[in-house]
Amino acid sequence: MTPLVSTALLAGSAALVVLAAALCWRVVVGPTTADRVVAVNVVGTAAVVVIALLGAALGEPGFLDVALVYALLNFLLSLGLARFSVEQGGLL
Amino acid sequence: MTPYEAAVVALVAASVFFSLVAVVGFARLPDVFARAHAASKSETLGALFGLLAAAVAFGQGATTVKLALLAMFLLVTGPTAAHAIVRAAALAGATPWTRSNRDPGPSTHDRPEATTGTGGGSR
Predict the structure, then answer these.
(1) Quick one: where's region Disordered (chain B) (predicted)?
(2) Of these four, B54, B59, B69, B81, which has the most CB atoms within 10 Å of its CB?
């Protein structure tokens, strides 16, 4: 783990955080509920990648467990929102 | 700049590039179907590149197995979640953007009597 690798991973994490913050504009603007739900799903995926990159940059493998659980919860959140806020009916 | 460092930097750059493509598509495309298309495909590829960069940085070991599992999970569930959401929106009456229908308007999921299609719940 050289300093250049750590710097590259941290810079990539920062760039992904900035892009996720830009996606929050679509969550605010909408115009439909499905837009907001897909945008939140993408923000969650970016958060998973940021957690994994931070774990690699700081040399802490324990972050990967957090990323796995967050990915699972992100998927369930998307399905639940699709069921209860968009469709109010069948799931898939 | 060893090959190891070059590989990590290139993979992180690819991840940021594809995520940027996803965000630009999400901001600029006209309707919910095109936006979810851009988001599901490009963002999933960016996430896979990011996880691959983390795997190269960690080196071999149990962490690589965990990252491979995480990558497979994201590869399966990202497009699946987007498809479920957009299918729900389509069943609820969202209309796609066309050249003759420049303003599809908001989805009609607030009006339950406008729903058509099969597979919906009992209303």
Answers:
(1) 96-123
(2) B54
